[in-house]
Structure formats: structure tokens, C-alpha cells
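Entry for adenosine monophosphate complex. Fields follow.
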Amino acid sequence: MRRAGLEGPALVPTMGALHEGHLSLIRAAHRTGNPVVVSIFVNPTQFGPSEDYVRYPKNLDRDVALATTAGADFIFHPDVAEIYPRPSTTITVPEATELYEGRVRPHHFQGVATVVCKLFQIVRPRLAFFGLKDLQQCAVIRRMVEDLDIDVELRFEPIVREPDGLAMSSRNVYLSPSDRLKAPLIHERLIEGKSRLLAGESMETVLEQARDSLGHAGFIVDYYDLIDTTTFKPTRQLDVNSALIVAAKLGNTRLIDNLLLFDGSNMP
Ligand code: AMP
């Protein structure tokens, strides 16, 4: 059962260092006509011990100006102590977190689910906007909202890319100039993989060659796989739930990307 009507804010959770990907979510939230709350919170509990929490890019004044221009009515920028005054109760989403990002980054999705749930409780949004760039995160949040009967409507928005195809990310600034030139190969291998799969080529061959090709170009590939977006498990079916997903490192920078196999595909 849902609350009647569309009253209540539209929430766009972010970790700041805003770029066009974030701004597209804020604009989409603004178009609903609901008041828009943008949260800017670098959530320590979703970073692993060897990850970039301390050096995560921060520029609050710039973020506030960009978010406001894109249509934010309120900025919520809490301190860590405000969100986590003591060791927190946590939310563990099963199944959708077992593989891929969940496997490479243990505890990451527990941190994400917990902070998103807390943001929902604090802001009480009617709608919440997330980017398909983080496809597994979308699946995890969908699952949490359904399992815990959270009364919020989820909207998942398309990936915004640089002109050369690289998915925008706050972490792209870490890429060295030569790695930045190589980085769009990730998207190229997704497009190529999709068209070869749709042309009926052997799935294992397509997946293996994409991994090899990225490896030869200097990427350390964590995964390149065909998955079902609802379960976030591997699939060998081509249908409206299938997506190609990839995560690979260039130098110290980890890039993730994905491609839904069909226009009008089901989303998580
Ligand atoms: P982050 O600040 O990285 O936590 O991202 C905040 C929100 O922006 C998440 O829902 C992301 O999926 C979304 N986002 C990040 N990059 C992009 C992008 N290139 N296109 C669309 N959404 C994005």
C-alpha cells in the first residue's frame, strides 16, 4: 500500500563531487514538481579499508551551486557523527549482493543499504532517484525497499557518458592522462559484446574475448559478465532482464559500467 498522491520530497542521494550524471538525476527529480532534496554525504561504511574514503574528491561550495542550478531545493550535508553517532544497526540485503561488486567489495552494499535506509527515514521522500551507472546498487536498493516495505517510489535514470563513451564518475579524475585515453575501451567492449551476443555468437566466446581484449589493453578485469538484473546472478539468456556488466582497474582507478541488452529493458 502506498501513501496517496505524490506529496513529499524527491531525494537524490550523492557523495558529492557532482558531475553531469548526478545533475541528470537532480533535473529528473525537479521535473516531477516535488521539492528536491540532494544529500551530499561521503558514507564511510561503504568504503573498504584499502579504498579511497580519505581522498574521495570534495568540493562543497561547487556542489551546492551545481545542485541548486539543476533544481535542488534543499541540500542535506550531514556530518559522519550525525549519521553514525555510535556503531549502527545495519541492513544486509541477501542474494543480489553475493557476486560482482558484493564479492569484490565485502560490506560495501551493507554500507549502501544502511545509509540509504537512514536517508529515507530522515528525509521521508516520496520518490528517490538513482543512476543505472551503479546497476547492482539499483538492484540492491530495489530489493531492500521491497523486502522492508519501504514506502518510496524508486526511479532509475540512464547512464550519462563523456563524448568518448566513458561513463561519468567522480573517480575519473584519478585517471592518468594515458589511462584516460584508454578508459572508453570499457564502453566499446560493452557495445561490441552486446552486438555479438544479439547476432547469436557463442556467449562464452564473446565474454572471454571481451575480458582478454581489456586485459591486453592494460586493464585488470574484475568481471565482465552477462547477468540478470533482477537477481544479479549470471544468466545465459538474452531477454529483457539481461545486461552486460564490467568492472576493471586502470592503474589504481577502478571503473564500472554496464549495458542493458534491449531498449526498454526491465530495470531492477
Ligand atoms: P555517487 O555520488 O557516486 O554515490 O553517485 C550518486 C548517484 O549518482 C548514484 O545513484 C549513481 O548511480 C549516480 N551516478 C553516478 N554516475 C552517474 C552517471 N554517469 N550517470 C548516471 N548516474 C550516475
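NOTE: The pocket of adenosine monophosphate is lined by residues 14-15, 21-22, 24-25, 130-131, 133-134, 157, 159-160, 167-170 (CB under 6 Å).
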